[in-house]
Amino acid sequence: MFEDYLPLLVILALAVLIGFIVILLGVLFGPRRPTPRKMAPYESGMVPYGPGRRRMSIRYYLIAVLFILFDIEVVFVVSWAVVLRQLGTLGLFGMLVFLVVLEVAHLYAWKKGALEWD
């Protein structure tokens, strides 16, 4: 039984070893003279303004959760489409119910203004 998992363990050991080697190389050959310009945060080429810990609108997190929800939905629909012929008519109607419930949730979020970005 252990022999079945041996290739997986070898790959895991190599990944951990390579990770440690990359970190060690960064420490050995990385910058040693931090200047204010080097230590400044970098965000899309723009000069940062304000403190790093400022309040964010709850809408940002709401949009992120909705994006993840509909992104996961795509995973379900694609995997369902792969096995559609094996599922038959019952699988088709099951997915239609799933999509209708998801669309009702989408319309509800839209009507409540969850997708508006002010």
From TrEMBL:
Q: Where are the transmembrane segments?
A: 6-29, 60-83, 89-110
UniProt topology in membrane: Multi-pass membrane protein
**Which GO molecular function, any one, fits this protein according to its record?**
quinone binding
Q: Which domain of life is it from?
A: Bacteria
Pfam families named in the record: Oxidored_q4 (PF00507)
By its UniProt entry, which InterPro entries does this protein fall under?
NAD(P)H_OxRDtase_bac/plastid, NADH_UbQ/plastoQ_OxRdtase_su3, NDAH_ubi_oxred_su3_sf
Localization annotation: Cell membrane; Membrane
Write out the entry's keywords from A to Z: Cell membrane, Membrane, NAD, Quinone, Translocase, Transmembrane, Transmembrane helix, Transport, Ubiquinone
Oligomeric and partner information: NDH-1 is composed of 14 different subunits. Subunits NuoA, H, J, K, L, M, N constitute the membrane sector of the complex.
Note the HAMAP family from the entry.
NDH1_NuoA
Biological role stated in the UniProt entry: NDH-1 shuttles electrons from NADH, via FMN and iron-sulfur (Fe-S) centers, to quinones in the respiratory chain. The immediate electron acceptor for the enzyme in this species is believed to be ubiquinone. Couples the redox reaction to proton translocation (for every two electrons transferred, four hydrogen ions are translocated across the cytoplasmic membrane), and thus conserves the redox energy in a proton gradient.
- Name used for this protein in its record: NADH-quinone oxidoreductase subunit A
Species per Swiss-Prot/TrEMBL record: Bellilinea caldifistulae
Q: What is the lineage of its organism?
A: Bacteria, Bacillati, Chloroflexota, Anaerolineae, Anaerolineales
Q: Tell me the name of the encoding gene.
A: nuoA
